[in-house]
Amino acid sequence: MKHEEPDILKRIGKDAGFKVPENYFAEFNARMAQELPEVTITEVNEKPSLWLRVRPYVYLAAMFAGVWCTMKVFTGITTNQMSTQQRMSEIAPGIIMEQNADEFLNYGVASDYDIMTYEDSVQMDVEIDANK
Amino acid sequence: MRPMAHFFCRYRKITCNFVPTLMASRNTYDEAAVVEQLHHPDTARAAFGQVIEHYSSSLYWQIRRMVVDHDDANDVLQNTFIKAWTSIDNFRGDAKLSTWLYKIAINESITFINKKKVMNQVSIDDDDSFLVNSLESDEWFDGDDAQLKLQKAIATLPEKQRLVFNMRYFDEMKYDDMSEILGTSVGALKASYHHALKKIEAFFEESD
User: Fold this and answer.
1) Contact B47, B18 (CB under 8 A)
2) Residue of chain B with shortest Cα separation from A33
3) Is B183 left (phi over 0), alpha (psi -120 to 50) or beta?
4) Range in A31-45, B23-37, B48-62 the model is least confident about
5) Is B146 part of the contact surface with chain A (CB cutoff 8 Å)?
6) Architecture of domain B127-208
7) Is CATH 1.10.1740.10 the right assignment for the domain spanning B21-123?
8) Which residues of B176-199 are buried (b: 16+ CB within 10 A; e: fewer)?
9) What ipTM was predicted for this assembly?
10) How far off is chain B from A62, nearest CA to CA, in Å?
């Protein structure tokens, strides 16, 4: 965007009308350099130590190791949880069979052989109890 | 020095107490070399002498257009260099040295004007017209009526517009450089300059 300068600025030009004493800048430069206070300069060491050079890589490696450990821990927990669930699913049908046998039989799902086997086992249990 | 090089660098505190050396006869100014020397205790003072020599004139005029009075500009310029010297450790070469110095000069100018406002019992919200009240009798101003009127018009501008106008009109500074110094987008700077021109034009029309 080009700004059109007002005519008055074109007439005045770039001179603001300010002036300075003669030799002002030369004298100022000399005086200023003399008047600079004492300061502590922090020297930059061009040859950094071995530790400073390898430090970023060590930090990077430590970060990856941390991520790997975290993943390992979570993977272990998940595997344990899965094996517990698997065991539960294997045990569950047996428990259900024993607990709900009468209900199971009443619905007529079992075959005659199953019913006979079940009745025999009940009979045997009764006899064992009676012999005690 | 490259920024990454600084990241890996080790620093050592050393007190700099060398005799000041002014290289008045130096013709060439190598900014990269000077910046490098500024960070070494044995070369820092001499290097800063070169910085003073190289930037005193341009910084003076920038300050002078803000504070108007020569003696005030002289004081502010001195404060600018002392502040730059005492905080030279903060300058790590990521930005241009000129940008850093201009920033300090502008901050010092604004601080000075605000202090002067308090001393002259001028409201902090008022414009800076009080700065040009005694310009006609100033021995270091030899402008004609039009130039005097221009200074009065500039003094009515808000601070940011005044800075932008001075940098663009008198110094013919690029918008990109101004953007770095003032921390404002190029678009906003162009808008500020446009508003400043309109206000100055209106000032002249009203006073004619």
Assistant:
1) no
2) B49
3) left
4) B23-37
5) yes
6) Orthogonal Bundle (1.10)
7) yes
8) eebbbbbebeeeebbebbebbbeb
9) 0.79
10) 19
